[in-house]
Amino acid sequence: MGTLKSFSHRKTENYKMGFKLNITLLFVLLLWASDAEAQAAVFDVTKYGARPDGMTDISQALLTAWKAACNSTTASTILIPTGTYMLGPVKLEGLCKAPLKLQVQGTVKAPADPAKFKGFDGWLTINRLNQFTMSGGGIFDAQGEVAWKQNDCAKTGKCNSLPTSFRFNFISNSIITDITSLDSKLFHVNVIGCNNLTFQHVNVTAPDESLNTDGIHIGRSNGVYIIDSLIGTGDDCVSLGDGSKQVKVSNVTCGPGHGMSVGSLGRYPKEDDVVGFSVINCTFTNTDNGVRIKTWPASYAGVASDLHFENLIMNNVGNPILIDQEYCPYNQCTKSKPSQVKLSKVSFKNIRGTCKTPLAVKLACSSGFPCQGVEIGDINLTYNGKGTVKAEVSNVKPKVTGKMIPALP
Ligand SMILES: *[C@@H]1O[C@H](CO)[C@@H](O)[C@H](O)[C@H]1NC(C)=O
Ligand SMILES: *[C@@H]1O[C@H](CO)[C@@H](O)[C@H](O)[C@H]1NC(C)=O
Ligand SMILES: *[C@@H]1O[C@H](CO)[C@@H](O)[C@H](O)[C@H]1NC(C)=O
Ligand SMILES: *[C@@H]1O[C@H](CO)[C@@H](O)[C@H](O)[C@H]1NC(C)=O
Ligand SMILES: *[C@@H]1O[C@H](CO)[C@@H](O)[C@H](O)[C@H]1NC(C)=O
Ligand SMILES: *[C@@H]1O[C@H](CO)[C@@H](O)[C@H](O)[C@H]1NC(C)=O
User: Fold this and answer.
1) Which residue from 219, 218, 228, 133 is spatially nearest to 174, judged by alpha carbons?
2) What is the pLDDT of residues 17-68, one digit of tens each?
3) Which residues form the signal peptide (predicted)?
4) Which of the residues 142, 334, 350, 387 has an alpha carbon 20 to 30 A from that of 131?
5) Domain residues for 159?
6) Model confidence pTM above 0.70
7) What average pLDDT does the segment 144-173 reach?
């Protein structure tokens, strides 16, 4: 009895232990499985045929890796590892099934010859994504020098023949961080139809004399944030086209280039309003302008309001503070009729430093639609040349909120 009891007891114990072991094993297996699921799958372009030899076009490898990652039902990463790659124009399409990260550790070069971009208006065109991240410290070098020499935008008024380096179209809740854009052929970055898109620690670089290499141009988007970045290029540092809403720029260093601008606005019919733009804690060095709002005369109707410029340092800047409602480059318009773009709620506060022209402040508003609700104060700008700084003001009665050097007339 005793033996039997102990036997059956032992048997039960064994059975229990086996059960426990199985449960533990199952648990471990489950943990492992869920861990594998939580860890984003990595789609390395070199596993799809990309070679880091700086010569072989990796566009097919990138497109295949992108397709596979985009089809993943869990978060995934497309990796371009360290090394130098050649990449032709690509369109990276969403929507994707889960958050996607493009991690670029290498240097990616575009063909220098613009003819290789026939039929493409962008180098990397990225369409329709939600929760996208681009990061990794990589460099995108568009090798724009050949293109700049061929650029005839000024003569023809069209720049369509050259590709923009990055086109972000309809991207939401996404972040571009630790990426360098070098020597774009035309604009570095164009943002259209985006919602809640952040650029942080981006480095945008092209020489002063490169034509139309705007840093980041934004249009028809809501919530674009540019922070902790460096933008030195041959055209506007950041520019806002029609329909830009809630764009915030802070801790950005601009220069060389043309500074930050709203517009040009009013050139085309039915432009969407520009509402909510703040530029805070930024430095401008050797730029042609600091902060500028430009609208065309004899223009179509438009609205730009809630534009705020604060805590800015100007180092040898052409026109640090500028509202120009008679913007008419290359005489492509007539100045006989005033601009119909209404500017309101504009402030310039705590802007200091030096300028390379004596005209430190110019507020030239439309005679047809004088600017409303303009505030300016705590301005201290000195001229680097001989003579004194001055301010010009027309069709606006700004409220002065602090000390003014130069004083308003
Ligand atoms: C997408 O993934 C599904 C399974 O999740 C698979 O059946 C299908 O073949 C994949 N499509 C592509 C283009 O990879
Ligand atoms: C904006 O996008 C970021 C990055 O994806 C996200 O963390 C944040 O929650 C989004 N904000 C809103 C208001 O959706
Ligand atoms: C920005 O990129 C340029 C070109 O690659 C480089 O020379 C410069 O050092 C970079 N600046 C920073 C702060 O990373
Ligand atoms: C401003 O941006 C620079 C460059 O990214 C960064 O090193 C610095 O920490 C930022 N400053 C603040 C106050 O965040
Ligand atoms: C600007 O800088 C000040 C002082 O460093 C800081 O308190 C403030 O948060 C900054 N503002 C933005 C929008 O970064
Ligand atoms: C304006 O700036 C100049 C040069 O930096 C400085 O010498 C002067 O004290 C400043 N004036 C005021 C009122 O802050």
Assistant:
1) 133
2) 444 445 454 454 444 444 444 456 999 999 999 999 999 999 999 999 999 9
3) 1-38
4) 142
5) 8-405
6) yes
7) 87
SS3 344: strand
For a pocket test of ligand 2, which of 131, 132, 196, 245 has the largest count of ligand atoms closer than 8 A to its C-beta? 196
**Ligand 6 atom having least distance to the Cα of 403:** 13
Helices (H) and strands (E) in the chain, counts: 4, 28
How far does the centroid of ligand 1 lie from the alpha carbon of residue 72, in Å? Answer: 8
Amino acid at 196: N
Residue 195 has pLDDT above 60, yes or no: yes
Establish if 2 belongs to a structural domain: no
Pocket of ligand 4 (CB under 6 A): 201, 228, 251
Residue 327 and residue 216: Cα distance in Å, rounded?
20
308 is catalytic: no
Q: Who contacts 395 (Cβ-Cβ below 8 Å, separation ≥6)?
A: 325, 364, 365, 366, 367, 370, 371
Q: Report d(CA 191, CA 165) in Å as an integer.
A: 11
**Where do we find the tokens 């923009």?**
164
Answer whether residue 360 shows pLDDT above 80.
yes
Catalytic residue among 9, 217, 258, 308: 258
- Own/partner pairs, 153-162, CB within 8 angstroms, 24+ separation: 153/211, 153/212, 154/211, 154/330, 157/330, 157/332, 159/186, 159/212, 160/121, 161/114, 162/114, 162/117, 162/186, 162/212
Pocket residues: Cβ below 6 A from ligand 1: 67-68, 71, 73
SS3 339: coil
The finding on whether 350 has its CB within 6 A of some atom of ligand 6 is no
Structure-token pair, residue 97: 């099934």
Q: In this structure, is residue 1 part of a structural domain?
A: no
- Per DSSP, the three-state class of 12 is helix
The strand pair at 238-240 and 274-285 is best described as unpaired
Report the separation in Å between the CA atom of 381 and the middle of ligand 6, taken as the mean of its atom positions. 8
| Cα distance between residue 217 and residue 199, in whole Å | 12
Our count of domains for the chain comes to 1
Has residue 275 been placed in a domain? Answer: yes
Q: What is the CATH number of the domain that holds 391?
A: 2.160.20.10
